[in-house]
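Write out the 3D structure for:
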Amino acid sequence: MTATTAGQTEAVQDAGYLSYRTLIWRRFRKNRMGIAAAVILGMFYLVAIFAGYFSPYDHNDIRIQVRYLPPQEVQFDWSGGFYVYGLTSTQNPVTLELEYETDRTQRFPVRFLSRDGSGDFRLVHSEGPMYLLGTDRMGRDLLSRIFHGARVSLTVGIIGVFLSLILGSVLGTLSGYFGGWIDHALQRVVEILASFPPIPLWMALGAALPAGWTSVETYLGITIILSIISWGGLAREVRGKVLVFREQDYTTAARSAGAGHWHIISRHLLPGCYSHIIVVATLAIPGMILGETALSFLGLGIRPPMTSWGVLLEEAQRVTVLLNHPWLLFPAAPVLGVVISFNFLGDALRDAADPYS
């Protein structure tokens, strides 16, 4: 390419002949908070996908001899590298709880990128008590359970939003395009769903799930419940945009040329809503995650042996547990991190989706 051609290309780009996607990406990458949020969310999902690799122990491995063990520190010296000390335990005669003391005569090396005693490959593990976030009432490693709980808590948001996007986009488009009795019927359904307080409605629908369902069936049931409840807001927003787009000249021209309803909807109406749908989906995922967490926290959601962040927080309901074992609140930290990151990402996408503002 000659210098003249390169200069002409740059001139055309500077004149505003960039594609819509390029304009969105250019504006999005200037938002540092949005980029940071995307990176943080990518790390959360990476840990969720490879939870077995990142977990120091099996998340369902029960060790009653170290139940309610406080977080342990990893030691280091130049001669032995990373290691953890052993522990000795005694039972308190009053509370009947185990009390632990560090045994500095025992050292257990911390190993990286190796297999544990059961043959599973781990990023880091130790044969000693390397419980960085402590253990629960069954002696299970809390850090490993948080990693595995991320699989349920993060995927329920993605799957739930995907289902609600389909319902909200399709029904909102039909409501705005056809109008009449279809519009009135769908809007009354949306108003009915919006009139119920969300938490009591979740509780009622969650309690309606059969008690004999397996963990996977309960997980799918919770996902469908959250999707059914959450589609109304998106449907109303898409309807508002479709009401504007159906009166545009290009829609009128397509209708005059004999285009069918499906062609007009798929080629002229829905594409105009894509950027808005993406932003709404990004902002709706935290609501799905909080919904699953709330249901599981109340004992109406995911059930053991499947674990989620809500299931882990359920163990911290009692005040006595919080006073004696405050580390059981650690699962609240990733919930806050993911929700805040999704909100920052949604704000960045909302600003980038209007690159001409």
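The chain has two domains: 72-130, 143-352.
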